Amino acid sequence: MKKMLLRFAICVGLVLSPGVQAEPIVIRFSHVVAPDTPKGKAAEYFRARAEALTEGRVRVEVYPNSTLYKDREELEALQLGAVEMLAPSLAKFAPLGLREFEVFDLPYIFDGYEALRRVTTGPVGRELLGRLEARGIRGLAFWDNGFKSFSANTPIHGPDDLHGLRMRIQSSRVLEEQMLALGALPQVMGFSDVYDALRHGVVDGTENPHSNLYTQRMHEVQGHLILTGHGYLGYAVITNKRFWDALPRDIRRQLERAMDEATAFANRIAQEENEQALAAVRAAGHTVVYEPDARTLAAFKQALLPVHQRMEERIGADLIRAIYRATGFDPSRM
């Protein structure tokens, strides 16, 4: 009997001993792009820093290339708790009733990364992330991908060359209006389906930052690319609010630190990755790359800036004006 009690005491001591490691908290981080894109690399960077800073108390499992959930599935999966972390493109929040996030899709609203950062790291960005909480989502950070160019299977020397083309877009009323303003036919399609759709002629062209174009091999089936820089593609890194709030406070602090570091990394490499991808597209030799002159860029802006006014009712005129003030943007000078 004494031996049994002794064995029991030893077992209890082992369970209660602070030296015995509990099972790590698992964070499943799902995204739809390749591991070698800016978002893919940033997700891996976050994984490494989160696991290091928490000394193994957290394990992050990264699922790239839609291997866990596709575009239209992932937000619902997050809300249901089937996945803990995502980094969806900002247009994805409109179906949740948060149309204001489509403000990032407005053509030519950001004149480069400096202007963009005044929004994403300022009061406007913080207020937008705060609006996610009513949907059971905690917004953690904004990550860049980059500025987009138009590609097609026919030459693009100016806005008129997009007339009548079937252009793939992600689901966004703003992007639909953008394509209509150019006389193109917008086709909403999940990101993982785009390469095959281009290869089989289901759509004629698309818009992408160069890192997406290259890593998804779209340049192999797109003969023409024009460097318009007309729109921004970025992501909000989000988590399930109930999961996040239930984390031990010290774990949450370390994850916030890991996210801050990953965000600085993501936004630092985005421009570099896109420049390298454009060079790789040129070197591959499948695609003719057009660099528009000032007159051509002015023509694109003239065609696309009216989209701002047409989207005021949907997005909110006050929000659009707040971004104008933050960035110093004046559409009347375009």
UniProtKB/TrEMBL annotation:
Family stated for the protein in its record: Belongs to the bacterial solute-binding protein 7 family.
Biological classification of the source: Bacteria, Pseudomonadati, Pseudomonadota, Betaproteobacteria, Rhodocyclales
Signal peptide location: 1-22
Any one annotated GO CC term: outer membrane-bounded periplasmic space
Key words, A-Z: Signal, Transport
UniProt source species: Pseudothauera lacus
InterPro entries tied to this protein: DctP_fam, TRAP_DctP, TRAP_DctP_sf
Coiled coil: none
Single biological process term from Gene Ontology: C4-dicarboxylate transport
Protein name (database record): C4-dicarboxylate ABC transporter
